[in-house]
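Lecture 7, part B: from sequences to assemblies.

Below are the input chains for today's worked example.
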Amino acid sequence: MRRRINRAGLYSLTFSALLSWGEVNASADKGDALEVLRRFDIPGLSITDPPRRTPQQTLFKRADGQNIRLGDFTGKYVLVNFWATWCGPCRDEMPSLDYLAAEFADEPFVVLAIASGHNPLRSILRFFEQTQLRTLEIYRNQDSTLAQEFGVLGLPSSILLDPLGREIATLSGKADWFTDDVRGLISDLLSDMPTLK
Amino acid sequence: MRDIWDSFSSVTQDSTILMALLLPMVLIGFSVFRGFAAHRLVAALLLRFRWANLTFIVLIAIAVGMGSALIAQERGLRQGMAQAADKFPVLVTAPGSEMTMMLAAVYLKPSDVPLLDGTVYAEVAAHDRVEIAAPLAFGDSYRQAPIVGTTAEFAHYLADDRVVGRLWETNREAIIGSSADLAIGDTFTPSHGVGDAAEHDAHEEEFRVVGQMARTGSPWDRAILVPVEAVWEVHGLANGHAPERRDQLGPPFDSEYFPGTPAIIVKGDQLWASYALRSEFNRDSQSMAFFPATVLTDLYRVMGDVRQAMSLMSTITQLLVAASVILAMFILSRLFARQLALLRALGAPNRFLVAVVWGYSAALIVSGTLLGLGIGLSTVSLLSRLITERTDVLVQASLSWHEIHLAAAFASMALVLSLLPAIAALKQHSQRGHAH
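Predicted structure of the full complex, as structure tokens:
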């Protein structure tokens, strides 16, 4: 555990230093993450090759109303999951996302379950409580701008971002996010973090 | 001969058939009544047994009324459904059941249907021969009214340019069908889903009604139409346009940002173009194109047997009632025995006795048949209103020449058969006369 914390701290420190120095003028070694992704056969997962830029500055909100953007997670692998309270498949897969988030809570990996559209906060809270989601945080994007910019065509939609915030894989529809393959993939990605040039 | 017949107008043809059907009845009436004033005696008999007579008349009326109403109603529903599908020349959908897709898109019956992606839509919309290619997005509702996302162009086409108010100009404006439970200026928030399963607090977006379409005679009269972009946005998806053009409403859509549509309503610029489009977009794994009218025709073909069975059952019911009436005539003629014996004793000729008994039957059968047509007409009108309310398919059924011909054939045949009890009554008295 200590090793993990130390490694996570080191990555954050490195990226923070780079960000404070100026814009991220380095690019991740393209092959690394994609090669890791290709080693795993995760049903429905589509690799984005070459990695695609994503809307890093678009604002969305935490449950307390505080603004946040994807750019705030630079330096971590991010699994963005667009969902909605009325969407059955989204609700079905949420516990597995919660387990995944819990397993890698101390790593530079975060699951952002973003309720896209006008999902009432009371419905989200009720769902989180009923489903006993313990690790996932509540994020909302009521005007769906983030989903629109990502070109989300159906819910649930999940997009894996590399530490530079680039889209490296997508999965449309429901998935089991707590399988050995997915856990192995995230572990391998984390142990093979991109090198900066 | 056939050419001469075909050269007559349909009214002339139908009137001629009616006269031919009534001819046996008229001939019999003329033959038995000629030279006699039997009607007073017939009226006296009718009054004498008025409750029994009334029961017979009502029985005949119900048999004729129900039979003609069922046949007329089936025809009216068929015509109403065909009319409702008029505005949907070609449907392009994901491969699946044409019937399910047609019910979902044309008759707005909720269904879990697969979606077509933006690539297929772009291809259809860009086709040279396509005049209108409207995507549909449904699944939400307000109260019991379905909310359908589409384009302003399609709304205009559906209403034949007859829209009170105006079409939407923003993605939070809506137009309503003629029977929707809203008015111009009202606001509403969609529920996710339809019917009892709808989630009322899933969405919070408020729409304002800015226009109302003229009546189309289809389930779309109860629908609420909104920009298709709004439906996608409400569901937290891309809205069909790239982020830099996110405020655009209507085509062209960007296939990269097109969330999918269960159906595209396509109108070709020519009738023949519709055939070409159907053939072009009928692809095994990608899309399916069909004429809703053809699916309806296939449905009627399947239902044809049911229709014939219904017709047969109606005819059999009428025949059974006619047989019962004639049987009753045999029994009643025994009740008349004393009156007939008296007439005979007074020197009334045989034909006069036949005229009295046959006239009595004729009065019951003709009154029952006419009343039956009246009942049929009222039933058709009531059923049409009920079906229109339940299905939103405008059913304007009415009795036609077909039902009048059937009723005339029934009355004529029953009256021919009514000669039997009349002759039987005569023979009965002859035998008694001989015995005395």
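Note for the exam: The mean pLDDT of chain B is 88. Keep this in mind when comparing with the next example.
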